[in-house]
Input
Amino acid sequence: MSTQIPYATLILRWYDRHQRILPWRAKTGTIPNPYYVLLSEIMLQQTQVATVIPYFNKFIENFPTLNDLAEASLEKVMAMWTGLGYYSRARNLHRCAQEVAKQSGEIPKDYQALKALPGIGDYTAAAILSIGYNQPYVAVDGNVERVTARLFAIQEPLPMIKPTLAALAKTLNEGREAQERAGDFAQALFDIGATICKPKNPSCLICPLSEVCKASLEKIADILPIRQRKAEKPTKYGISLFIENDKNQILLRKRPEKGVLAGTLELPSSIWSEQYISIEQAIKETGCLGQYQEIGEIKHVFTHFTLKVKLFKLVSDLKLTQVAQDNMWIHSDELNHYPCSTLMKKMIAYSTKI
DNA sequence: TGTCCACGTCT
DNA sequence: AAGACGTGGAC
Output
């Protein structure tokens, strides 16, 4: 007969011996500073602890209280955020401080009120309530997701399984101990995720949960959580024609007002399709009759697809058919006066060098 | 040296 | 409601 020690007990026992010392963290037995918690949690969004530490210290030196932050200029706040990335966090943080200062001056103790503040979403609201106010919320971030997926050996892929993982994570603090030590419990989960249950090479041998962790027992911890391989972006193919006259002007035309690179200038080009078409067909499509020589291939990555374009250069006289009526001749130096995509600049620069 | 990617919030 | 945000770390 075996009795199962609750997860929360194992986690808290470990935390009492192995917790990290962090500048925003309250010393054991002391009341946390909710402003420190809020500031650190905003900084920790998408950013690692080691990166955040010097920024947090600098902010606390300059803005010891939330009121100081609210009264500071946005410029100063932005300047101090420099290098930390995701700058909308800094703008939102500043607005958040101002809203709190304007209201009660106290950071809300209520989930909905917190979420209504700029820059605070599900995760951060739960983190502030648990760590800052010792309320039994489970803040589910990527670390907690990973710990949960391993603890229960969840093999379905993210992001599909995200809601299930969040629901499971929220069962971890059941029991009197974790309810009473909500802040410690939340931070304990983060510490385990960061120092033991790492994304790669998890240290199951020294993990307080190893004997109850399904993934560890099945020796599959290192492959969890499984992520959906994001759909490969399709590749499209096109042919573009580089045509220069004796005044060093380049033949360009305007793309349609809708769709990719709407309304920008382009080299006369075939439609981008699933595979390369022949140069003869591209000539017919564009209406730019003549002899061409292939000069290279340009690769360009859009959000939704990768584009490969074969570049051809005109090596004979040009004869335009009616299809080509809208074409215009532009000198490459004048190009800046027209809307022209990076892709086209790339292609023109390449062609000009040849 | 570049390329890929993290996974919280906002729009 | 998919995509943008921006840095640093992994390969």
